[in-house]
Each structure stands twice: as structure tokens, then as C-alpha cells.
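Could you please consider the sequence and fold appended to this message?
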Amino acid sequence: MSTIDVPNTVFLNDMTTDASGKIYVTDMLADAIYRLDDGGQELFVRDAALASPNGIFADGGRLIVASWGKGIKPDFSTAEPGGLLSVDLATRTVSHLPGAQKFANLDGVIVVGDSVYATAYMAGTLYRYKAGGKPEAVATFKPGSADIGTDGKSTIYVPQMNEGEVAALSLD
């Protein structure tokens, strides 16, 4: 096993790998994303607009980021909920996905087809977002819906952190 030293950060959360094999890791409490590869590591982007980046998913030439929100309190509630963002891999520009701002404390995020799916940990909600729309709740669980995964086709896996279970949802 090999390791890559990450700068002394406070709260590393989630990671994804792009098509070229570079790894991106979110630092929730520093509003930052690091990029790691065989050549080392670097601060890829630090921007208050990331609003406590948690989930991250490489989608072509961009990263889709699920933010927890601004003003995290000791119980992890926030002064302002998070939303969905995009970070351009070439320019490192952070932008909000239209219609998907400030709606939940988001944890995990994936892309399946033309939809972005994200979990709201505190509420236990799984949301689906399509460009030009607004996030819609597609499933509700107990609080603790965390990072999510997919088989890339028709199933989404949603870990239930507080229950010690994983829910499998069919997209058919």
C-alpha cells in the first residue's frame, strides 16, 4: 500500500478520480479541494462559494460538488444550507448549478445519465437534480444518509450511517 501526504487539513471528507487518474479530495472545514496524483498534491481550489464541500464526483471536464452549507455549528447544523456546485477542471472556476442552491446539508453526490443525485445527511433525503430544474426528493430515509454510489446503470446505493445498512434503489 502506498500513501500520499495531504497538507495538514482539518476535515477531509470525500474523494473522486477523474478520467486521467487524478484524485480530488474535499476539505469541508477549509472550503477547499485538493488534487493528488503520482507527482504529489496541490491545493486545487479554495473558495468560500464551496460552502463546506463534502461530496465530490468527477463528471467529464468538471467536478460536481455537494456542499454542506455555511456557518457550521457544533451539532453540524448550519446557518445556511448547502447546494450543488460545479468546478471546471481546466479553469478551476466554481459555479452554482442553476436552481440547486441553498436547499440542504448535502453529503454524497453522484451523476447517473443526465441526473445528479445527492444525499442530505441530516434529513435522510435523496435528491435528484436535472439541469434547468430544481432538486426533487426521490427517497427519504432516517437521518444519516451519507456518501452514495452507483453501478453506473440503474442502481443507487445509499449508506445509512446510523442504521448500519445500505439501501439499494432501482432507477428503473
The two ends are 38 Å apart (CA to CA). The first strand starts at residue 12 and ends at 17. The chain is about 0% helix and 55% strand. The mean pLDDT is 91.
